[in-house]
Amino acid sequence: MTVTNDSRVGFTWEHGKNIGGTPIIDYSVHYDQSTGDFILLQSGVTTEFYMTTISLTKGSTYSFKVQARNSVGQSALSSELAVLVA
User: Fold this and answer.
1) What does the pLDDT look like over 28-43, one tens digit per residue?
2) Cα(72)–Cα(83) distance, rounded to whole angstroms?
3) For residues 11 and 66, what is the distance between their CA atoms, to the nearest angstrom?
4) Which end of the chain, N or C, is surrounded by fewer C-beta atoms within 10 Å?
5) Domains, the chain, ranges and CATH?
């Protein structure tokens, strides 16, 4: 049986370097539920802070990555932040 709880997940990141020499417009947040595939959780994030309420499974590890966007295009995904749900 899988036990899930709605939990708040929040994290911050540092404003990265401008990509292509133009200012960053917004960010997208991606996550992985231990499958190896990152999927889009939210796009259009305009601050260096993100919080969401999602259903998490106890004992599972979730990983998050952030991607910046400017008028030139999107950056590579950031390094991942991994969270083990207690």
Assistant:
1) 999 998 888 999 999 9
2) 32
3) 10
4) N
5) 4-84 (2.60.40.10)
The rounded distance, in Å, linking the Cα atoms of 60 and 3 is: 11
Q: Nearest CA to 63 among 39, 40, 86, 32?
A: 32
Computed over its alpha carbons, how large is the radius of gyration of the chain? 14
Sign of CA dihedral 52, 85, 32, 72: positive
CA distance 2 to 12: 29
Which helix (H) or strand (E) element contains residue 86? none
State yes or no: pLDDT of 17 exceeds 80: no
Secondary structure of residue 12 in the 3-state scheme:
strand
In this structure, the number of other CB atoms found within 10 A of the CB of residue 86 comes to: 7
For residue range 60-86, what is the model confidence (pLDDT) as tens digits? 888 999 999 988 889 889 998 888 887
